[in-house]
């Protein structure tokens, strides 16, 4: 049994990121300002929150996500950007921002728990 | 629309208006409401209302619905726990069929820290690192010491009912030392699994695996995880006299009080949080144009009830960890997708 798997608590049952976790669907523009990504094994949980994070970028003209068919574990994210950037960078920034938001939320939540200024019952 | 009204969902008698937010760059009259982490840090807040051994209620203020909903979905479906996955039926002469009994056993919450265990993959064998074993061996017989003419099965027979407390943990490998301070057991001792009568018996071996709620709800660490938006009652024009009393009666107790100001009875909103937004107040002609019911679009009142395996305050932290892990995976996958599409060219 490999030791690394036992160390950090990994909440998602993956040893490594699968080869085809994310693909760029055919039809992307040459300058990559209009791209549809297909992410496997993801749903509204990541889809909607990632869509929100990407839309916060002022260089993003359009971002939307869809789950084309309920029995296929696939989620598509469409990004169109201005010429100042491209969809790949917008996606990357969106992922980073979403993670930062989670970090802030977690830190604040734990801080509030430590402060303990709430009703606590047995 | 005024800035203060922008994050209000308006509840009207026959419809709900202004439902979706538009907090995106340049979406409102050219105003830059773009997101940046620094201002987000000051604009959002979490207020913990109460915590018990199994429940937490907290307010999440100033975040988008997509984040709140991701949190809720992860709490229900993507935080791993240990649950009975395989039942090796050695003997079952009770009236409950094998498959029904196995299903009932699967639903028992098992008090074991999931972080202490690894995922059991399709190709891996059960080991002390990924499986917990329980034994269940119960036989029912007549209690000879029971009084003659006794009719209560609980007194008349021994083991007339099989409870979760009958499960016996069978530690494997180093599990006995690893869990010496907190032996693995079902969360509750009084869950009825099946009933037996003299001569009937159940003998089986139960294997618990690590899993998540999206595979089977038995793995879900929460009994409920939900949020609602904070209700708000705006009184646009003073409501006085007998109308004030009627106004108060339109809401659950404690939401609206009638106060006396300079000899005039006046309705005042004291605790909108308790409101159920029943819209009863909108049925009365005399309140037309005097009241507006809204909900604060970015104020989520979360209520999370744990099954007892993971402490409720820990659940929320874990849910955020899961979302961060999803981001890490997506980031790695994006790098890979870009690399492989460049190779194709």
- Highest-level CATH class of the domain at 81-219 in chain B: Mainly Beta
* Series of secondary-structure elements of chain A, N-terminal to C-terminal: HEEHEEHE
Average pLDDT score of chain B = 93
**Oligomeric assembly:** heterodimer
Number of strands of chain B: 18
> Biggest interface in this structure?
A-B, 60 and 65 residues
CATH-derived architecture of chain A = 2-Layer Sandwich
Instruction: Quote the beta fraction of chain A.
Output: 15-25%
Query: Helix proportion of residues of chain A, in percent?
Result: 25-40%
The largest sheet of chain B, given as strand count, sense and whether it forms a barrel, is: 6 strands, antiparallel
The overall strand count of chain A is 5
CATH topology of chain A: Gyrase A, domain 2
Helix/strand structural class of chain A:
alpha+beta
Largest beta-sheet details of chain A: 4 strands, antiparallel
- What's the number of structural domains of chain A? 1
The CATH topology of the domain at 81-219 in chain B, please?
Answer: RNA Polymerase Alpha Subunit, Chain A, domain 2
* Structural class category of chain B: alpha+beta
Give the neighbour order of strands across the main sheet of chain A: 1-2-4-3
Distance between the termini of chain B: 50 Å
CATH level 1 name of chain A: Alpha Beta
